[in-house]
Pyridoxamine 5'-phosphate oxidase family protein
Amino acid sequence: MTLEEIYARIWDFLAAAVREEKNPFKLMQAATVGLDGGPNVRTVLLRSVSEQENLLTFHTDLRSPKIAELSREPRIALVGVDPVHNVQIRMSGETRIVRTGQARLNAWRSSPDHDLVVYRTRLAPGTPIGHADDAHHQTQPVPDPDEGLKHFCVVEVRPTRLDWLEHLTVDRQQRARFVRQGDIWLRDWIAP
Ligand SMILES: Cc1cc2nc3c(=O)[nH]c(=O)nc-3n(C[C@H](O)[C@H](O)[C@H](O)COP(=O)(O)O)c2cc1C
């Protein structure tokens, strides 16, 4: 493959992950800088991808620790892997937390209900509880769906670096790097 083909494939793979239920790149690991300066990583579900806009999104709870972290340091790194085809896609970039506006409302309305239940919990993600079931045994009824909207946000990621690694055979690998400068992507091969 040429560098141009790899670049196109990265975006094609990510776009396919949004559409397909069982795609390995649907779940990405997202790393932030913790409030203590150390790294923090967790799984997020890829929700939208646009090469034209240089944009990816995931959804999260405004109360979750990652929002405090991204509010302080908006840079993020994401990695996904397809273990069957031995492909790794890494990226880093800048985030923007979308707390208001029509795009957020559209994202909320187009999400399946079972996803939205998590935003209706009275306890913020990460709140210490005495027993695993305490998160569900709440003394008051679970708030209605619109209550969940208060906690819902879209995180936009605008990548500035992309990194493709493919293990073609046991002894042959290909690694390509793409660095965004202004509106263009500089591309080169790097040692795996
Ligand atoms: C399969 C799976 C998918 C997940 N998707 C998301 C997601 O899209 N957004 C999200 O905020 N958390 C998601 N989580 C939970 C996070 O990995 C994490 O535990 C939670 O968001 C709290 O992270 P934080 O404490 O770093 O803010 C997912 C977890 C799993 C296991």
Summary: Residues 27, 40, 42-45, 58-61, 64-66, 125-126 surround flavin mononucleotide (CB under 6 Å). The CA atoms of residues 91 and 162 lie 4 Å apart.
